[in-house]
Amino acid sequence: MAKKEEIKKIPTHVGIIMDGNGRWAKKRLLPRAMGHSAGANNVEPTCKAAWDLGVKYLTVYAFSTENWTRSDDEVSTLMKLLKQYLEGCKEKCLKNNMRVRIIGDISRLSKDLQETIISLEEYSKQFDGLQFQVALNYGGRDEIIRATRKIAEECKEGKLSPADISEESFKNYLDTADIPDPDLLIRTSGELRISNFMLWQLAYTEMYFTDVYWPDFDKKELEKALEYYANRDRRYGGRKS
Ligand code: FPP
Known about the structure:
This protein is of the alpha/beta class. About 40% of the residues lie in helices and about 15% in strands. The strands form two sheets. A six-stranded parallel β-sheet has the order 3-4-2-1-5-6, with helices on both faces. Strands 7-8 form a two-stranded antiparallel sheet. Helix 1 packs across helix 2 (about 30-40). It is globular, with a radius of gyration of 18 Å. Bound molecules: farnesyl diphosphate. Farnesyl diphosphate binds near residues 20, 22, 23, 36 and 40. The site of farnesyl diphosphate has 20 residues, from helix 1, helix 2, strand 2 and helix 4.
């Protein structure tokens, strides 16, 4: 039997706000685009590290509903990187037994990116290793509004009664319907905000903030975050988990 001190509480679902690409580049006198590119290259190693450490679900914030207000150049760099990543993703899924889902409103993305996403999600359904979510054109408020609209439509059509709307049923209209709420949220680069990320789902999530910029966030840093989580005494408004 394992010694007591070796038994660690591992979060089932980890969310990451991948922040600091721009500052990582600035520190090295490089263009911002290179920071984003280094950030994109850090996604696959993080998926592997998370799975190796026992994490079952990982969700990363890749592009928010607010990110459209960045310069055209920067938006197009980010879209290019996301497209590249998603196009090469089937191979990664097969190699790593990984399922990929996109959360967010994909209807504003280019038609070919939407097709890539639909095909990738369908293909990767078969894999039961890491369940990886990429938040793309995602905003927590937007997600709640889209869920509310679906509910209102069903009420209007007589399929649902307002009295049946509960926390449990509301959850099923969110982009994360089949996904457990995150146990741990990590934000890199020293900012202490959740920036419209999974507003509903983060209700009881432990938060871990680190000064490390996203491109430098490696397995060792993930281990530190998991160590922090393992030492937390989780409480749900008085009810222990
Ligand atoms: C924040 O850095 C990061 C983003 C706005 C985007 C995150 C995107 C990636 C890591 C690349 C693409 C993702 C995938 C899944 C392939 P920032 O620009 O706000 O950094 P700063 O605050 O230092 O300026």
